[in-house]
């Protein structure tokens, strides 16, 4: 595989160089001017505005949304971009806002649960009252049904009407066995979203995910902040899949206590779950819980703007980034705002500044370049999922997607990290663009965290569209940049989905500019070639892409 990638990349480097030469001296000068047009101070100003208290955490269907989408539309109009959804810059995304409130606590034996300190519960059902009553608990290991891996944790067990108890991540990560699933790299089967989806498909009434920090890649504090307040969901007709009545999570400590109450050993059960011969284990305990839903139908919006291609306008290169964040919450009677400066005011500002770079060019690209600022990524990629189901252009006319979620603010790097390294031929174009900065591509250092499945590009990838997720790096350019990076990286990790994700003048802004330049050149090459990069052999999305391109 690696030799194949190197060969294809070398071919691309040669063709890309030839393309730039063929554009002529004037066009080359125009490209260089556009490449150098990224203005740190202007980028800072936009990130600062988007993450200010005035925008109130950019929650969908609030005044914060109106401020954000108005800013994007105004900027795209000023730059001369055309509406990307017919004659509109907006694509309405219908959503259900659901505030789930546990009525009392989770009751299992005589255990004491404390919401949200060691358990959380909610429901995606579009009805007011949802409950589990004397629901039998069944431990189903990792809760995976994956025929391609000859793995089925639900074999020979009927969980209809019951509540499944599930481990997070997948057996590959747990064993570090490269021949089991994808080894250390998390598959989609390891994501918490999949666990709930599969439980519902199996007929379960409830599902409890056991949270562990390392395999989940984040602490319980993220669970606490993400499971409170309004949660947004696409209407049932858009999803067209069953959901369990109550979705829950419990801490690792409570999981140990639960298994002890069942007369079992948690660690031994975990070990048993690592075999494809694992058989689900009835825990001989029941769960009771009631959840009240306050449901509000609402509409949020994706913002879509395009630069029409001058010779092949029906073919599109997509840039995407989510404009939303978590809004606000009340803590001890005080309003706390999740301003989301890094996640994702940086990517939202990036969309505007890459658009500006394209408009600096002497000539528009051959292909159209379309910018999608998606809503409700923090609620489960709802905006991008809706766009994938209702694209503003045929998906077989989308050349590729470059997603920007939480851009690099930790300083200049010698390399560029690719999330899901080796998945698509888009990386060949990215490698060429990175080479201009003397950078090489490197795989992500923590593939076990499943980042490829956690942002908007995944919505399009599932539909077959080659989608690129990259950013940051592992080696700083010099000691000065490393000093910035050491300080910023610690803060970013601490503040993920917390109120401390605030604008900081001392971020490594040069790293963000360099990243935007790389993404700009990658899209520039894609928009001026006749090539159609595909997923690489072995990618889980290649079959879908091949079918749509026939």
Tell me what you see in this structure:
With 550 residues, this protein is of the alpha/beta class. The protein has a domain at 97-295: Glucose Oxidase, domain 1, CATH 3.50.30. The protein is built from 18 helices and 19 strands. Strands 1, 2, 3, 4, 7, 8, 9, 10, 11, 12, 15, 16 and 19 form a 13-stranded mixed sheet that branches. A hairpin with a 4-residue loop joins strand 5 and strand 6 (151-152).
Q: Which descriptors apply to this entry?
A:
550 residues, alpha/beta, two-stranded antiparallel ribbon, 19 strands, disordered N terminus
Radius of gyration, CA atoms, in whole angstroms: 24 Å
Q: Which term fits the overall shape?
A: globular
Q: Strand fraction band?
A: 15-25%
Helix percentage range = 25-40%
Annotate the secondary structure layout.
Elements (H helix, E strand, L loop, with lengths): L1 H21 L1 H12 L4 H11 L12 H17 L2 E2 L6 E13 L16 E4 L6 E11 L5 E2 L4 E2 L10 E5 L3 H5 L16 H10 L4 E6 L1 H4 L3 H7 L4 E3 L2 H4 L6 E6 H10 L4 H7 L8 E27 L4 E11 L4 E5 L2 E5 L2 H20 L6 E8 L7 H8 L8 E6 L11 E4 L7 H10 L4 E4 L13 H5 L5 E3 L9 H17 L13 H19 L14 H7 L2
Parallel strand pairs: 4-7, 7-8, 8-10, 12-15, 12-16, 16-19, 17-18
Antiparallel strand pairs: 1-11, 2-9, 2-11, 3-10, 4-11, 5-6, 11-15, 13-14
Helix pairs in contact: 1-14, 2-12, 3-12, 4-12, 12-17, 14-17
Write a brief structural summary.
The chain is an alpha/beta fold and 550 residues long.
């Amino acid at each position: 595989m690696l030799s194949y990638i190197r060969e294809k990349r070398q071919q691309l480097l040669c063709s890309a160089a030839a393309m730039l030469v063929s554009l002529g001296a004037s066009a080359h000068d125009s490209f260089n001017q556009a490449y150098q047009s990224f203005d740190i101070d202007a980028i800072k100003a936009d990130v600062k505005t988007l993450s200010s208290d005035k925008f109130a955490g950019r929650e969908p269907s609030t005044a914060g949304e109106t401020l954000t989408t108005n800013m994007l539309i105004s900027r795209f109009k000023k730059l001369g971009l055309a509406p990307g959804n017919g004659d509109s810059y907006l694509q309405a995304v219908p959503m259900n806002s659901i505030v789930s409130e546990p009525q009392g606590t989770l009751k299992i034996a005589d255990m004491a649960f404390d919401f949200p300190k060691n358990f959380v519960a909610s429901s995606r059902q579009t009805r007011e009252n949802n409950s589990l009553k004397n629901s039998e608990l069944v431990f189903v290991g990792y809760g995976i049904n994956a025929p391609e891996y000859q793995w089925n944790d639900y074999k020979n067990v009927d969980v209809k009407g019951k509540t499944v108890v599930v481990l997070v991540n997948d057996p590959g990560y747990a064993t570090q066995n490269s021949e089991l699933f994808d080894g250390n790299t998390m598959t989609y089967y390891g994501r918490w979203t999949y666990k709930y989806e599969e439980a519902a498909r199996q007929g379960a009434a409830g599902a409890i995910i056991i949270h562990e920090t390392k395999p989940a890649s984040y602490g319980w504090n993220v669970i606490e902040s993400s499971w409170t307040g309004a949660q947004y969901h696409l209407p049932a007709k858009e999803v067209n899949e069953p959901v369990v009545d109550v979705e829950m999570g419990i801490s690792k400590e409570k999981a140990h206590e639960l298994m002890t109450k069942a007369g079992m050993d948690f660690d031994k059960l975990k070990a048993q779950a690592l075999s494809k011969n694992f058989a689900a284990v009835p825990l001989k305990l029941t769960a009771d819980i009631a959840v009240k839903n306050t449901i509000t139908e609402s509409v949020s919006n994706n913002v879509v703007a395009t630069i029409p291609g001058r010779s092949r306008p029906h073919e599109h290169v997509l840039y995407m980034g989510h404009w939303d964040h978590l809004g606000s919450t009340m803590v001890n009677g005080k309003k706390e705002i999740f301003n989301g400066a890094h996640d994702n005011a940086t990517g939202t500002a990036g969309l505007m500044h890459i658009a500006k770079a394209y408009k600096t060019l002497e000539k528009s690209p051959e292909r159209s370049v379309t910018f999608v600022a998606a809503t409700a990524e923090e609620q489960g990629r709802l905006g991008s999922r809706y766009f994938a189901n209702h694209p503003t252009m045929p998906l077989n006319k989308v050349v590729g997607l470059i997603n920007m979620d939480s851009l690099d603010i930790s300083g200049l790097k010698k390399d560029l990290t690719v999330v899901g390294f080796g998945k698509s031929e888009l990386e060949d174009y990215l490698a060429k663009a990175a080479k201009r900065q003397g950078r090489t591509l490197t795989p992500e250092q923590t593939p076990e965290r499943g980042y490829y499945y956690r942002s908007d590009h995944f919505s399009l990838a599932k539909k077959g569209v080659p989608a690129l997720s990259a950013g940051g790096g592992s080696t700083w350019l010099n000691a000065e940049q490393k000093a910035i990076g050491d300080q910023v990286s610690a803060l970013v990790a601490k503040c993920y989905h917390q109120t401390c994700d605030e604008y900081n003048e001392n971020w490594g802004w040069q790293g963000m500019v360099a990243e935007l330049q790389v993404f700009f050149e990658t899209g520039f090459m894609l928009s001026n070639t006749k090539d159609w990069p595909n997923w690489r052999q072995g990618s889980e999305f290649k079959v879908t892409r091949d079918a749509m391109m026939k």
